[in-house]
Amino acid sequence: MSIVHALKPRLNSAFKQLMSVHWWMSGAYLVLFVTGTFMSQLDRSVSYRGSLYDFHKSIAVLSMALLTWRIFLLLQVWWKKYTKRLPKFTPAWFKTLALHTSLYVFMWAVPITGFLLSNSFRPNNVKFFGIVLPDLFPQNAAMAEVGRNAHFWLSYTFLAFIVLHTIAQWKVARAHWRRFSNFLKLKSKTVRT
């Protein structure tokens, strides 16, 4: 086996799968933030308001499933990486660990507070693309306001942490943006010809 072949990662490596789930989840969270912000501004009389809420909840359920898969993949990556060599416990490593741990907590807490809000407001209120899911929380009008406030504040705090994550990974984000821009330019050239 050649050295180049030995250094080339496998296409189905856990890390590549982890990065794939990362980008699927980032897309899901983008949809969640946009729909959540938009639907919270809608008047109750708008005909498609309920459908938009159902769509938002379905994407949240999907993001929770992706989070479960992502954690499984992350544990695989950590096992492979840290059984060979422990990390260097530097301040930069602890800073990165704290930021990523916070992101994972928010990825879990924001949908859970959304479920608290939905279940407290009305039972059987969370659907996954039409499939009614069992309630995680009992109906409780007093908890609906707690869920609403927690969901709102945790969502925007999560968004602030996403911005911090993007700043910390600026080189990677810029490279992906350049790649995406070049892809769009290439597509627009092929459409014109």
What does this structure look like?
The chain has 193 residues and is mainly α. It has a single domain (16-83, 90-184), classed as Fumarate Reductase Cytochrome B subunit, CATH 1.20.950. The protein is built from 6 helices and 2 strands, in the order H-H-H-H-E-E-H-H. The protein has a two-stranded antiparallel sheet. A hairpin with a 2-residue loop joins strand 1 (127-128) and strand 2 (131-132). Helix 2 (14-41) runs antiparallel to helix 3 (49-82), helix 3 runs antiparallel to helix 4 and helix 4 runs antiparallel to helix 5 (141-168). The longest helix has 34 residues, at 49-82. Mean pLDDT is 84; it is low at 1-7.
SSE layout and pairings?
Elements: H1 3-7, H2 14-41, H3 49-82, H4 91-121, E1 127-128, E2 131-132, H5 141-168, H6 170-192
Antiparallel strand pairs: 1-2
Helix pairs in contact: 2-3, 3-4, 4-5
Summarize the structure.
By secondary structure, this protein is an all-alpha fold. The protein is built from six helices and two strands.
Anisotropy-based shape: globular
Work out the helicity level.
over 70%
Q: Structural class, from helix and strand content?
A: mainly alpha
Strand content: under 5%
Might you state the CATH topology name?
Answer: Fumarate Reductase Cytochrome B subunit
Count of domain modules: 1
Residue runs with pLDDT of under 50 for 5 or more positions? 1-7
Kindly state the number of beta strands.
Answer: 2
User: Which CATH architecture would you pick?
Assistant: Up-down Bundle
Mean pLDDT: 84
Note the gap between the termini.
44 Å
* Widest β-sheet, arrangement of strands: 1-2
